[in-house]
């Protein structure tokens, strides 16, 4: 999912989202799951290697995007569903905090390795377009649920 955020509409967009968003994210039952740092680092390396092989720039790691990617994985684990719920809010927050022009995300679940998640994203035209998009920053969060299933969220922005 991508969101282009023109500077002139950013303030109005944030106001509208704050006042009438239908994306309700109840934090009351969301616990923080454990990150799989090894898989996160591997997936980031795979995505950047892919971009470099195509002549694109590698993406700089963003602690801000990592915070939001982690929160979204915790949400997906709590609900047990793969989703882009709350993406508008994440995108608006990132845009407001770092003056980003465009924000996008890829999500996945139940893949067992970084390579498996990457290959499935690559096989999807929308996910591939995001990974190969005109972005400068990214963050990859990979978290395990209580049964050991992996959830993936990668945020991109420029």
UniProtKB/TrEMBL annotation:
Family annotation (PROSITE patterns): PROKAR_LIPOPROTEIN
Pfam families found in the cross-reference section: CAP
All residue ranges annotated as the SCP domain in the record: 44-156
InterPro entries attached to this UniProt entry: CAP_dom (IPR014044), CAP_sf (IPR035940)
Highest taxon above the source species: Bacteria
Protein name stated in the entry: CAP domain-containing protein
Upper lineage: Bacteria, Pseudomonadati, Bacteroidota, Flavobacteriia, Flavobacteriales
């Amino acid at each position: 999912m991508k969101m282009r955020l023109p500077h002139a509409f950013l303030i109005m967009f944030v106001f509208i989202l704050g006042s009438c968003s239908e994306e309700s994210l109840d934090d009351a039952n969301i616990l923080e799951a454990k990150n799989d740092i090894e898989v996160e680092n591997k997936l980031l390396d795979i995505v950047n290697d892919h971009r470099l092989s195509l002549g694109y720039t590698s993406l700089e790691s963003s602690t801000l995007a990592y915070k939001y990617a982690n929160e979204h994985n915790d949400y997906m684990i709590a609900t047990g569903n793969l989703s882009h719920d709350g993406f508008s809010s994440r995108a608006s927050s990132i845009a407001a905090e770092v003056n980003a022009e465009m924000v996008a995300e890829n999500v996945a679940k139940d893949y067992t390795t970084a390579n498996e998640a990457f290959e499935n994203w690559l096989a999807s035209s929308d996910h591939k377009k995001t990974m190969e998009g005109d972005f400068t920053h990214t963050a990859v969060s990979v978290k395990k649920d209580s049964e050991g299933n992996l959830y993936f969220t990668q945020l991109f922005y420029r």
